[in-house]
Each structure stands twice: as C-alpha cells, then as structure tokens.
Write a structure and sequence with these properties.
The active site is at 91 (proton donor). This is dCMP deaminase family protein. Zn(2+) binds at residues 89, 115, 118. The protein is α/β, with parallel strands linked by helices and 172 residues long. The protein has a domain at 9-47 and 87-159: Cytidine Deaminase, domain 2. It contains six helices and seven strands. The strands form two sheets. Strands 2-1-5-6-7 form a five-stranded mixed sheet, with helices on both faces. Helix 6 links the parallel strand 6 (129-134) and strand 7. It is globular and about 60 Å long.
C-alpha cells in the first residue's frame, strides 16, 4: 500500500481560504472564507469594497471608532475598537454569494476568527461549523460563547501554517 502524503482536509481548505484572501485590496487585513459541505467546495469570498466601488487602496479607509463596555478580571473596562466600514467582510460576502440550501449543514473555513457581526450572521446562516486560523481577541469571548449556544462547532487551527505566497502585512 502506498502511504498517503496528501494534506489533511482542514489544511487543504484553510490553504484555499488563504489563497482566496490574496484577492483582497484591504490595507489592514486580508481575509478569505470558504464554504464546504462534506469534502465539496461550494463557494469562496474575500473582504473588500462592494463591486464597482473604489476600495481602500483607491479611496482610503473609512475608519469608525466605537467603544464597548466589557468585564476584565471582574472589573468593567471600556475597549476601543476601530473598524473599516468601507469593507464588506469575507464571511458577509460568502453569505451574500452562496445559497441557503448549500449552507445547511456546511462548514466555513475562514483565515481569521469572525468578528461579532459576522458571527451573528454565520449563526443564522445554516452552517454547523466555523474553522479559523488567526484569532480576533476583541470579540473572541462573546463569539465563542454564542457559537456554543447555537451548537455550532467553533475551532481554531492553532498549529496551521499558511502558504508562504499568501503572507500579507496585517494591521490589528
């Protein structure tokens, strides 16, 4: 019997998500997402401005600042968040360009842990699993808790190494 030297499925689909992320023109973060049912690839998406609208590299980022009250070590603390509102997130684009019937029971592989807004959208999309690589600490606790409440498998590929050609400078 010939040994199987192929990549495992998690690595295979995360590699694809990272390759998809190379289409992003966002100067802050390149994010890719992949919809998978079983072992079948059903859709891909990346973050960026709406089609036909100048993106951040052409028109500049549209940064919105917001503050969130959170509990840190038993004390209330204000956390400042900055978000680009010109960019549609990869997960949002994935949901916009795939059909609900395809999402039922499917998995989403995404390069970055979803933000709170994307997690809410994914939670109502019919998917049953989210697999991500890079953490997003600003929303991690509440996203993880909500995914657990919904019964959605939510896991990080901590030891995963993305393909070298997908490396991009990331601003947090």
């Amino acid at each position: 019997m010939i040994p199987d030297h192929r990549k495992d499925w998690d690595t295979y689909f995360m590699d694809i998500a990272y390759m998809v992320s190379t289409r992003s023109q966002c100067s802050r973060r390149h994010v890719g997402a992949v919809l998978v049912q079983g072992k079948k690839l059903l859709g891909t998406a990346y973050n960026g401005a709406p089609s036909g609208v100048p993106d951040c590299s052409e028109a500049g980022c549209m940064i919105a600042e917001e503050y969130e009250l959170t509990m840190v070590d038993g004390k209330e603390s204000m956390i400042k968040k900055q978000r680009c509102v010109r960019t549609i997130h990869a997960e949002q684009n994935l949901l916009l360009f795939t059909d609900r019937i395809d999402r039922e029971g499917s998995s989403v592989y995404v390069t970055d842990e979803p933000c709170w807004t994307c997690a809410n959208m994914l939670a109502n999309s019919g998917i049953t699993e989210v697999v991500f690589h890079r953490p997003y600490p600003k929303d991690s606790g509440k996203v993880t808790a909500m995914m657990g409440q919904k019964g959605i498998t939510f896991r990080r590929l901590e030891t995963y190494e993305p393909p070298r050609e997908t490396a991009a400078q990331i601003e947090n």
